[in-house]
Amino acid sequence: MKKELFIPFKEETQLITAHYGNGENHQIIVPPQLQLNQGMFLPDHIIEQEEFHPNYGLRPEDLIGFNYAKAEYNKGIISSKCVHFYLYDYMFQCINNHPLRYTSMLMSYPMVISPDNSVYLNWTEHERRQSAWRNQQMARLWQANGIPVIFNVSWAGPDSYGYCIHVYPKHCVIAINCMGIKGDPDACYFWHLGYEEVLKTLEPLLIIRYGDKMEGENEEISIYFNNPIIKRMKYGR
Fold first, then answer.
1. Could you tell me which residues come within 8 angstroms of residue 106 by beta carbon, excluding any fewer than 6 positions away?
2. How far is CA 70 from CA 73, 79, 88, 94, 202, in A?
3. Which of 23, 174, 202, 212 has the fewest CB atoms in 10 Å of its CB?
4. Is there a contact between 96 and 133 (Cβ–Cβ < 8 Å)?
């Protein structure tokens, strides 16, 4: 069954041929105002909420990190798992440098969680906006090309909610990461503050949670996945 493509302003879209590795060529749809400069540097245009397509019904059975998916793809192995980007930023910088090439690769997967470029509390607002914009631009590009996308929602402090949280549509499937914050009281405080804002503003149907359960979460609408490497380090094989 062919995937339904969400293409706003069809008359303004571009079609560009791209492929990754030994994969087949794909005609990549590039929506209007999507500025695919190398490195994905922030332009004047900021994505608005209505530029995303609702993603009802997505529910992954298992996750695979982009680094592992990429390594397997290079060997001709296509995983049936949902691809995630809960990794160090440098491990997926390639998608910012070559967005069309990796869009072609990800078209082979059943679903993906949008990128998790970091949004740190101690960064300048411009740096935080830059990362948030990259995450959102890739989600928009992938949706336009028929890739089922779970929206990764990440934030810093309350001043980031407008461009980190409020841009996504209500009543959708989202993903939230909490890796690396336990043991840091300030990070935990701001995580919980943003989590409550997500619940209030987005009213998600389902939350894909990466990392340990946090106190006060809405577990009824959440499914949990852990980093298998850290789990092995903690508990052994």
1. 83, 112, 142, 147
2. 5, 10, 15, 11, 31
3. 212
4. no
What is the C-alpha separation between 118 and 42, in angstroms, rounded?
Answer: 15
Rounded distance, CA 19 to CA 104, Å?
A: 5
Q: Which pLDDT score is estimated for 37? A: 61
The 10s digit of each residue's pLDDT in 24-55 is: 898 998 877 676 665 566 655 555 656 789 99
Work out the burial of residue 9: count CB atoms within 10 Å of its CB; fewer than 13 is exposed, 13-18 middle, 19 or more buried. exposed
Q: Are 112 and 150 in contact (CB under 8 A)?
A: yes
The pair of structure tokens assigned to 232 is 């092995």
Do residues 92 and 112 lie in contact, with contact meaning Cβ atoms separated by under 8 Å?
no
Strand spans (E) along the chain: 14-18, 26-30, 63-65, 82-84, 112-113, 149-152, 173-177, 206-210, 222-225
Nearest to 140 by CA among 19, 28, 21, 17: 28
